[in-house]
Structures are given as structure tokens and as C-alpha cells.
Fold:
Amino acid sequence: MERHLTAPGVRIRGLTVVYNTPSGELPAVSGVDLTLAPGTITGVVGESGSGKSTLALSMLNAVQPPGRISAGSVEIDGLGDVVRLRGEELRRTRGRKVGYVFQAAQNSLNPLKTIGAQLLDLGRSHDVGDLRALVRDARELLGRMGMDGARVLDSRQHELSGGMRQRVGIMFALVLDARVVVLDEPTTALDMITQATILRIIREVHDERALTTLVITHDVGAVAEVADDLAVMYGGRVVEHGPVAEVLGAPEHPYTRGLIRAIPRLSGDLGLARALPGRPPTLGTLPAAGCVFRERCESSLDLCRTAEPVPAARAGRTVACHLPGPHAVPVKRKEYA
Amino acid sequence: MTRATANRAGALARRVAGHVARGLVMIWLVATISFVIIREIPGDPVLAMYESMLQKGMSPDQAERATAVLYGFLPKGSLWEQYTGYMGSLLHFDLGRSLSTPGVEVTSLIGSAASWTVLPVLAGTLLSFLLGVTMGVYAAVRRSGRLGDLLALSGSLLHGVPVYVIGLLLTAIFATLWPILPSGGPVDVEFTPGLNAGYLGSLVRHAVLPVVTYTLASYGGWILAMKSNVVTVLGDDFILAAELRGLRRGIVFRYLARNAILPLFTILALSIGMLFGGSIFIEEIFNYPGLGLLLVNSISSRDYALMGGTFLVITIGIVVANIVADLLYSVIDPRVRSGGTA
Ligand SMILES: Nc1ncnc2c1ncn2[C@@H]1O[C@H](COP(=O)(O)OP(=O)(O)O)[C@@H](O)[C@H]1O
Ligand SMILES: [Mg+2]
Structure:
């Protein structure tokens, strides 16, 4: 198959997503700006509840009630603003233009149908002319992920293990050759070794097909190996975003530092690994004014209680923090908006 | 592949065998209980019958045989002899003879009653199932709209109304206030039974009210069950996943409907089994000569042989329905078919 090797860029601007709760509509994602450079893999990390899945669903305009996108845009090259898409146009975008691996990919299959039958449903839904070729591609993808493709296509969900189902979910996201791929915790049901293998395969396919990929994970260590860029989310904000080596090698935001310190593999010393103090915020406990992280921050200022820090370029990345950073290096790339 | 298939077939056969065994035990229990009732009821009907035969001038031998024919076992002898005699005749499908309709075999009474029960109630069950399931899907999908609310409400209301109230209301409206339908009986007597328009038309006209009553009575249960199943499946991850993959609405709807309706098939098979006895109220109201009415009449006329036989047939109906329900579920649900539990 001939592939035109220009990956689309993705520009998220001012994105705010609110959930309707008993105490009114509360933002799970607040005014997020995030640019995915064409052809890159961007990792998104952050504790559970920081708004990662909500952000990911927004990229397909698929935030589920009681949530809704209340402001902002998600511009994808060649598609326009996804937030404005409706009906049939939106349906054709999902799956075909933007591939999505569901957070609970183990449960993303119809229990009554074989994987192969569901693959054909997918092909027919998107008017794929050559269904035989689609099946061949699916088999090949499954084979690359270490499974017997023909057998998997003949199986139903209950005949597959959690890890196998998750890989089937990844296959569904890649098989239609979507150029933008969003993976929400794609490897949680897998053991460490398979996890590394799958991420490597995602990287390979990404490079071969010139994709623009967003990978969400709460495993900072795993994402370090595959991502080009890293976005750190906290309380519905992207608090730090930049090249993965720089963000992990010299974190600017105190939250990023805390996350890294909590991981033995990255902090380099088992004895030094230290869990982040306090609890991740929920929609109801987020402070209404000031910095959302201030209550858990080791060095918060008076200013942090009153003014919300605006993301600003510094040290080759964007950081949303009032504290003067430890690494005063001028910005090298300017796409970290 | 072949070994897996063989294993599956084996597992299925074992399950069915288990059901059959349990069913046979149940049938045996009911038979034994009806034997005990006939034999041990105060005033021992069997012995009383024997003695009245003697008084009518029969020889003891004749009286004994006559009683045996009526009840399926000898009036005298040890309990064990009587019991084995009774069970032996059951095995030959001999349920004895009716007292209230003298001389007629219980099996033939049950046979003709069953045909009056099965067709109308079967029609009512299937009609209410189709109607309830369709409306249930609609009520679930449109559960925030006016019509969806209304449908669900109609389900809850009808579900709470006892079947005889529905039956009496319908009779009051369509047979008394606005007499367009017969109020009772199975068919008008002026027609000769057979495949002629008059007879069949009368048959259908008499069946309308019982069938509609049955449909309305069980429709509420179906719509509520289907609505709640659809709402549950709508919340399942695979439906959202299917939407995120951009599957056509029609396909997503099929995923939804098939998964939601599956558990209802089992209930359907079971309720078809229950229909053998479950129509007592309807048959009484409409004076419809089915199994329910037969059972009621046999109890009020103390026709113990008929009563025991009717009970037995109702039990067999339920046992068979259980087996069919299980088989059906195995055929349509692949998770059960392969013996998996995940
Ligand atoms: N359906 C919902 N109703 C109300 N709140 C929700 C809903 N889904 C998510 N949230 C809230 O939104 C916030 C972000 O959730 P989510 O995007 O799932 O975070 P993450 O993927 O980072 O764990 C959390 O505080 C969560 O409780
Ligand atoms: Mg999540």
C-alpha cells in the first residue's frame, strides 16, 4: 500500500471539558493548550484523575455525558476542528482518521461476535473496498504483537486473555491506517516484558506509517522509551510539556519532579524513591483560585494561592509554575505551546 | 479444533443430562405426592369408592378392578404394592379415570384441555414478548424523552395490575359496555368443528380477549426487563468502543440489541413452560376450557386422579421448559456454548 508520508499535526487550544456533578459543572480539563508536532509520539503522564482520558476523548469529540466540551478547539490537519464535527462526518472521522485505543481495551469487544466478524463490521462501516486485504493487515498486526492472527480472528473475547484483548484493541486502532492515533493506557493489562514489546511495536508502526501519536500512561518509565515529547497533567492542566529527555532529565515543574522521584527506575536509587505526598485532587477538591498543585507543592509561594500560573516557555519547554526554574535555558523549539 | 468441539459437546451433554436427572426427580416427587394425597386424604377416597362399589352389588373382585381403573392402583394391598402399581401405570401414560366426568380417561381430558391452553397462551406470550422487547429498546434509547418515559410508565403500571383485573376490565369493556366480542367460552356451538370459516372465525373471536389479556399482563414485565438490559449494555465499554471506532449506527444498534435480548430468551422459554398452569385466572374469567380451568374444577369436585394428573403434566411442562431454556441459552450465547465463564 502506498503511504504518503506526511503526518498530520494536532493543535489543541483552550480546551475546557466539564462534567455535570451534584455541585454543578466542574472542569476536568481546564483551558489546555497542547500541540502534537507532526510525526511525533507524545506521552501524557499524570496521576489518575488528572484528566488524561477526558483529554484523549476530546480528540475524537467523544466526551460522554454527563460531560461536555465547553470551550476550545482540537484542530487536526486535513480534518479541521474536530470539536465542531457532528453526525455522519464525526462517525467517519472516528476509527478511520483518528484511531483510538480505549482505556479499558480488555472490555472493548462485543462478547457475542468473533474478532474477525467485528473486523468486517469495522471495514464495512468505513466502506473498505478490499475486505480481504483488511483481514490480511489485521493478521499481520496481530502477528507482530506476538499472537496467532488467524486464531485470534476466529476467537471471541472470552477465549482471549486480558493482554490479548488489549492487543486486539490496538490492532483495531491501527488497521484502518488512521494517521492520528490515541492510546489511553494501552498496556495496563500486560506484564512488564510484553508492555515493553508492545510499546516498541507501536513505535515501529508509528515510524513506518508516519503517524502522529498520543500515548497516555501513568507509567512514566515506560513512556520514556517510546515518546518524543512528554506532557505532564495535573488537575486538568498541562503543567509541563517538552522533549521527553529534557523533561525527565531536568524537570522544571515541582509536580514533574515529584512524579519522577516516585519511580525507582528513574530516580536511579531504590532508597531514594519517594511517593508523592498527599492525594491527587478530584473535581470537587480542586482549588478554585491559584495554582492547582500548591497544596502538595514542596515550595509554594504566596503568589501561588491567588494567581494561577500561565504556561510559559522556558528551558526548551512550556511550564506552568510561578517558581523560577532551576534550569534557565532558552527555548529551542517553539511548538510547545 | 475437533478436540475442543468434542469437549464442548461433552460439556453440553453433561449439563443437559444434569437437567434431565433433576427434572425426573421433580416429576417423581410430584407423582409421589399426588399418590400420597389420593391414598392418605382423610376419608380415603379410594377405599370409599371400593366400598360404594360393593354396596352397589359388585363382587369384591369387580369392585377392586373398577377402583384400580379409576385411580390407577388397587384399593387394597400393602402401601408398597399400591405405590408400585401406581408408578407402573404412570410409566404407561395411564393416569387413571376421571370421577367428575365418569369413565373418561384423565389423559384424554388433559389432552383436550392442553390444546385450549397452549395455543392462546403461546400466542399471548410471543405477542407480549415481541411488543415488550421492541418498546423496551425504544424506552431505553429515548429514556430522556417524553414518549420513552410514557412507555416505561405503561410498563410499570401494567406490571403491577393483577391479570384478573385486566381480564375483568376487558370483558366489561368489550363484551358488556360495547359488546363486540364474546364474553366467554372457547367457540360458538352452532358451528361444526373443522376447517370451515364459521368455526375458525368463532374460534378466533373467542380467543381475542384471553390472548389480549395475557399479552397485556406480561407485556409490562418484558418492557421493564428489556429496558433495564438495554440501559445496562449501553453503559458497557464495548458499546462506547464501537462508537469510537466509527461503526455505523445500525451495527452498534445490533451489538446493543443482541446483547440485551439474550438473557430474555431464557425467561421466555421458562414462561412458555409455566403457561401450562399459569393461565388459571384467565381461563376462569373467560370460561376457557384449558388446563388451568381443568385443575380448578378437579380440585372443587375432589377428582383426585384428574388433579394429580394435571399437576403432573404442569410439572413436566416446567421441567421440559427448563431444559429447553438451558439449551437455547447455550446455542445463542457463545460464552456458555464453549463452557467458559469469563
Ligand atoms: N462521567 C464522569 N462524571 C463525573 N466526573 C467524571 C466523569 N468521568 C471523569 N470524571 C472526573 O474527571 C476527572 C478526570 O478524569 P479522567 O479524565 O478519567 O482522568 P485520568 O484519565 O487522568 O485518570 C476525574 O476527577 C474524574 O473523577
Ligand atoms: Mg484515564
About this structure: The pocket of adenosine-5'-diphosphate (ligand 1) is lined by residues A 19, 21, 28, 46, 48-54, 66-67, 282-283 (CB under 6 Å). The first helix of chain A runs from residue 52 to 58. The first strand of chain A starts at residue 10 and ends at 21. The domain at 10-60+180-330 of chain A is CATH 3.40.50.300 (Rossmann fold).
